[in-house]
Design brief:
Helix 2 links the parallel strand 2 and strand 3. The strands form two sheets. The protein has a nine-stranded mixed sheet. A six-stranded parallel sheet has the order 3-2-1-4-5-6, with helices on both faces. It contains ten helices and 15 strands. The mean pLDDT is 95. With 346 residues, it is an alpha/beta fold. It is globular and about 60 Å long. This is Gfo/Idh/MocA family oxidoreductase.
């Protein structure tokens, strides 16, 4: 049995609640080292998981021979730390958004190719059972031609679960570069690309800060997207949905409508124009709230791709395409013009 040596760089909420527990639960993994600039936080995590403690990721990469690294850091560090890990000979699982620019994303992809290592971006929405089933139904022609969609991802904000609370890096433009759109919107952009099986070519974005004071990033955004084949729909990302989280998607087609995570009991409801209704109970979606799915499947998929030498579902290229949707929305919000995604370069 292959035993992969893993390091987790960044010991905040996503590392403590997703990456580390899921690595520990995977029999092919040994957590060798953890790193965080907040020494006390790194020490607590290291003691909990029997790992070596570091406060400098460069020292970790120099001293530890690890097979793979999870990058769970503020967004502005995703690219430099991922590239350093790839150059050190480790496979990389990077949190989203993968980078702060297309150029950074391309550099990450090039580093993975140059070193012959895997780069995966942690877009967990692709693994949600209702989303997987919806993709199957669309591909089978069950709802015919897709006409439109609406999707939303919103909650009360990172202050409720981030390691630093109201002082979180999520709220600081110099560290996050983007707010709710990077935290939540990029997940939905990736999901829609995956479910629809095509790329978006235009986006109009209304990207605002109208809910939280003293932050320097967006907290409320709505985008209109158009795909290659002419499917149009809306995507909302918000830190202003109180008190409950909304993580729903509705796909409107020629022969019916698919409602994903839009009902408290059924994770997928298929409503057909002939009057048929099929209710699916497929398990809970991942959530910060109690009762959410405990395994995101991201870690297991990443580990399997290394052990079996297969391409991960969300490669660096896939992560970059989803990032480009968000960059286009930002540009549209700034210019008040529709962005052509084929021309997004910043």
């Amino acid at each position: 049995m292959t035993q992969l040596k893993i390091a987790v760089i960044g010991c905040g909420s996503i590392a403590q609640n997703r990456h580390l527990p899921e690595y520990v639960a995977n029999e092919n993994v040994e957590v060798k080292a953890v790193c965080d600039i907040v020494e006390e936080r790194a020490r607590e995590v290291a003691l909990l998981h029997g790992a070596t403690l570091y406060t400098d990721y460069e020292e970790l990469l120099k001293k530890e021979e690890v097979d793979a690294v999870s990058v769970c850091l503020p967004n502005y560090l995703h690219a430099p730390v991922s590239i350093a890990a790839l150059n050190a000979g480790a496979h990389v699982l990077c949190e989203k958004p993968m980078a702060t620019s297309k150029e950074e994303a391309e550099e990450m992809i090039q580093a993975a190719e140059k070193n012959g290592k895997k780069l995966m971006i942690a877009h967990n929405q692709r693994f949600v059972p209702s989303h997987v089933k919806a993709k199957e139904l669309i591909e089978s022609g069950s709802i015919g031609k897709v006409y439109s969609f609406r999707t939303a991802f919103g909650h009360g904000g990172p202050e409720g679960w981030s390691a630093e609370g109201e002082n979180s890096w999520f709220f600081k433009k110099d560290q996050a570069f983007i707010g709710a759109m990077g935290d939540l919107g990029v997940h939905k952009a990736d999901l829609l690309r995956y479910i629809l099986g095509e790329e978006f070519v235009e986006v109009a974005g209304f990207v605002e800060n109208n809910a939280k004071k003293d932050i320097t990033v967006d907290d409320n955004a709505v985008c209109i997207l158009r795909s290659q084949s002419g499917v149009v729909g809306t995507m909302a990302a918000s830190w202003a949905y109180n008190p409950n989280e909304d993580n729903s998607t509705v796909i409107y087609g020629e022969k019916g409508t698919l409602r994903l995570e839009d009902d408290p009991e059924y994770s997928l409801i298929a409503q057909y124009t002939n009057g048929d209704i099929v209710n699916y109970q497929l398990g809970k979606i991942q959530s910060n709230e109690e009762g959410g799915q405990s395994n995101s499947h991201v870690i297991d998929h990443f580990v399997d791709s290394i052990v079996n030498d297969t391409e991960p579902l969300i490669t660096g290229e896939e992560g970059m395409k989803s990032l480009e949707v968000i960059l286009g929305a930002l540009r549209s919000g700034e210019t008040r013009q529709i962005s052509s995604l084929e021309k997004v370069t910043k």
